Amino acid sequence: xxxxxxxxxxxxxxxxxxxxxxxxxxxxxxxxxxxxxxxxxxxxxxxxxxxxxxxxxxxxxxxxxxxxxxxxxxxxxxxxxxxxxxxxxxxxxxxxxxxxxxxxxxxxxxxxxxxxxxxxxxxxxxxxxxxxxxxxxxxxxxxxxxxxxxxxxxxxxxxxxxxxxxxxxxxxxxxxxxxxxxxxxxxxxxxxxxxxxxxxxxxxxxxxxxxxxxxxxxxxxxxxxxxxxxxxxxxxxxxxxxxxxxxxxxxxxxxxxxxxxxxxxxxxxxxxxxxxxxxxxxxxxxxxxxxxxxxxxxxxxxxxxxxxxxxxxxxxxxxxxxxxxxxxxxxxxxxxxxxxxxxxxxxxxxxxxxxxxxxxxxxxxxxxxxxxxxxxxxxxxxxxxxxxxxxxxxxxxxxxxxxxxxxxxxxxxxxxxxxxxx
Length: 422
What we know:
Blueprint: H1 3-11, H2 19-29, H3 33-44, E1 52-55, H4 56-73, H5 76-83, E2 101-108, E3 111-118, H6 124-133, H7 139-147, H8 151-170, E4 179-183, H9 193-205, E5 209-213, E6 219-221, E7 224-227, E8 230-232, E9 234-237, H10 250-257, E10 262-264, H11 267-274, H12 278-282, H13 285-291, H14 295-304, E11 308-310, H15 316-321, E12 326-330, E13 340-341, H16 347-353, E14 358-362, E15 367-373, E16 376-389, E17 392-401, E18 414-416, E19 418-421
Parallel strand pairs: 1-19, 4-5, 4-9, 9-10
Antiparallel strand pairs: 2-3, 2-16, 6-7, 7-8, 11-14, 12-13, 12-14, 15-16, 16-17, 17-18
């Protein structure tokens, strides 16, 4: 990171998210006043009041890395390799690309480092709201605000993405998307449920009937999927049962395999892009050589993906000995669940995870953002997320936090605006 960006991250204490502007943005989307009021309050608690500065060169490297990952993940040999290890359902492919992939980065000494890829990444809509609530708090922020997309432009990009998914599914460039179901298990209890409501409001403002439901709220009739009497065209899948294995996912599973409804993202998308085992391939030159990956693509991948290996009996002794150098993550994990930092790993826990499906990833310490809390300075960690569709960045944001893994509950932390510096 340049001296200028580092200095701003250490010294700029401007308030860059205006809660009044945020309230206005939420009320522009949600017409129900009480719901808008409560949503604005909840969303506000998820946002940090401090922006993060990054070199434009680092952003460019992130985008190049995303393109490189797509190049490999779209290779038939790569897909054959990873699908052989995935549940059978993942081998069924719809002609949808998968909305809102989240490429998560830390800024290391050698530039941005890809920590993981998520295919059901939350927070994009919340982060779009932040665009409209940003304040011109100082010259670097004011200059970058002028170059950023405004919320309406980002909303249009989101809408176009879902429309494109529907048209791809139907192989009809003029197909009209009429109904969407946002599906998650116990959606009203999810931490990001307010985001579901924001998406619902956005879609409905553009004439798309939208419901929010759990998987077992759906039924199949006459080879179509319904919520009550509402025929569903497309499911925006926010579930973390990535392969629809629980019994409550029976309708979703059957509808996917029979192509009764478009599902985005879906099991194929997850197996090809988000299974953490894939990072063991993408960060290994021998694997990449065997797949015939172009050397220029290899260099991008190996420069920006930390060494990642599958935990196995062959390497468990070495990994335990050198555990302080690694993070240990479940292959099918999400949301930092069951993730262990090596220097905190006990022998007892190691005995439990070494025989499960885990990867070991070289630790890349996150960069820092100094903020003021009640007049006192605090150094918080920074995670950068690039929301991606078909290899193209939709919006790049940061999450500021404290603790072992990324969270939105740190005082002074949360989703945060990202300002590039030339």
